[in-house]
Specification:
2 copies of one chain form a homodimer. With about 250 residues, chain A is of the alpha+beta class. The first copy, chain A, has 2 domains: about 60 residues, Winged helix-like DNA-binding domain superfamily/Winged helix DNA-binding domain (Arc Repressor Mutant, subunit A, Orthogonal Bundle), CATH 1.10.10; about 160 residues, 3-Layer(aba) Sandwich (Chorismate lyase). The first copy, chain A, contains 6 helices and 10 strands; from the N terminus they run H-H-H-E-E-E-E-H-E-E-H-E-H-E-E-E. In chain A, the strands form 3 sheets. Chain A has a 6-stranded antiparallel β-sheet with strand order 4-5-6-9-8-7, with helices on one face. The first copy, chain A, has a two-stranded antiparallel ribbon with strand order 1-2. Chain A has a two-stranded parallel sheet with strand order 3-10. The radius of gyration of chain A is 22 Å and the shape is elongated. Strand 10 of chain A pairs antiparallel with strand 7 of chain B. Chain A binds a DNA duplex (19 and 19 nucleotides) through helix 3.
Chain lengths: ~250, ~250
DNA sequence: GAGTGGTCTAGACCACGAG
DNA sequence: TCGTGGTCTAGACCACTCA
């Protein structure tokens, strides 16, 4: 037996899918919908919560429930080095950068293979696509590898990926770990996503040819619109090989 | 102002983290907890829902709320070819395989670059770690590439990755797309996860040296315990290169 | 101030699990 | 049968947004 909550969610989902309620449009008020479906407000709110988790509906306190516009999907290209990893094809991004000097906490020290409390430069990238937040990146670099222009303490802002560190040695290895988790309260605010919507979190560690870790990046994408794509080309000069190009 | 729901969730989370409530243990009944925290049952249930989404608590209808045992994380190694991609180091997996002959629906035809309704062999892998479901894989192969032993219509079951197709040409390219989404009702049942817990979904397309797609794999992992790791080694014979080993 | 969603109450009744 | 969670009700009061 389908619950009323699911029945209502299914009905609304159908109305959204068929365009009877258009993207960006406001749904009738919860009180109105509750009386329309002849359920109590908590039941109706549960139905809306289902659609929220699916990313179809956005609630705005004091204004109403809105059908989310179908957003362009975010494609993260794996294996790339540096800022160009993010959506190489999509130039319509407005990026804000904030630079801070910090001392490595335990988890970052482990990623970067540096002593705890050693000096790091943190680049906090927040990119927007139009008015909507798009993605969040926290990139950590040992301070001696950060460009001099940002090594000072004054926070800098920029509209591009400029000022990104240029390593001294050629980059040799990128290790990316992809996982999913609930957003932190902070991410809920900056990415403007529902706290019930999981994010795609990518930890990228880049090492140079000497094996030194030159960058650790913590990337966060809204889970309902992000794909991370990894392409591996295998060396094929000997038939039957399975691991060339990999560790 | 923290809501009572969050305050209760925080308190229970703390009790779990500090071991005051041990893994596998049953929590007091919802009615008991509600009176203990002096809230109504819906409020207490909302607090438990928070912990459920975090993967800390598992509800079993008619039995109670249980603290989930901390599970070994699942590591998916990207860029590998064939079944060994899954948790190379972990041999403690019991794998069930079901083989079926199907005709390619649209989305699979696009992935495999074959005509719609062409013959495919579907391998459905369900792996368990002890008693707990671990991961789910649906692997599709053009029928003429599937080994003769499974090309018949009789479903086969096996405890290992045996009978996996061996391509005629060396494998040249693997493209893996990682995303996160809510589980389907089917996945909720087979993986024994909460319907509120996102899964990590990986679509892996493998092509041989002739460019032919030899395998499309749809992999699903519980989002609270899965990591997908991709390691890219860059060719470093010319300094400043950025894309060797990539497309 | 009017309308919206956010949270919460104090019950009710149903479905599942174990004895 | 009994205790458990699953769902739902019909309100209440508070906080936010906008005119």
């Amino acid at each position: 037996m389908p619950s009323r909550r699911d029945a209502i969610a299914d009905d609304l989902r159908d109305q959204i899918a068929t365009g009877r309620i258009k993207p960006g449009e406001r749904l009738p008020s919860e009180a109105h919908l509750a009386s329309q479906y002849m359920v109590s407000t908590p039941t109706l709110r549960n139905a809306l919560a289902v659609l929220q988790r699916e990313g179809l509906v956005e609630k705005i306190h004091g204004k109403g429930n809105f059908v989310r516009r179908p957003l362009r999907r975010i494609t993260y290209l794996g294996g790339r080095v540096g800022p160009d990893a993010l959506i190489a094809a999509d130039a319509a991004l407005r990026v804000t950068v904030r630079t801070t000097q910090i001392r490595a906490p335990g988890h970052l020290a482990a990623l970067l293979k540096v002593p705890v409390r050693s000096s790091l430069t943190e680049f906090l990238y927040l990119s927007h696509e139009g008015e909507l937040p798009h993605s969040l990146a926290r990139i950590y670099v040992p301070r001696d590898l950060a460009p001099a222009a940002v090594a000072g303490d004054s926070p800098s802002c920029d509209r591009t990926w400029a000022r990104f560190p240029v390593p001294r040695h050629p980059l040799a290895q990128v290790r990316e770990t992809v996982t999913t988790r609930l957003p932190t309260p902070d991410e809920v605010l900056t990415l403007r996503i529902s706290s019930a919507l999981s994010v795609l979190a990518i930890t990228r560690v880049t090492a140079d040819s000497t094996g030194r870790v030159v960058e650790a990046a913590l990337l966060v994408f809204p889970g309902d619109r992000a794909d991370a794509v990894f392409t591996t080309h295998h060396v094929i000069d000997e038939p039957g090989d399975k691991d060339d190009g990999q560790g």
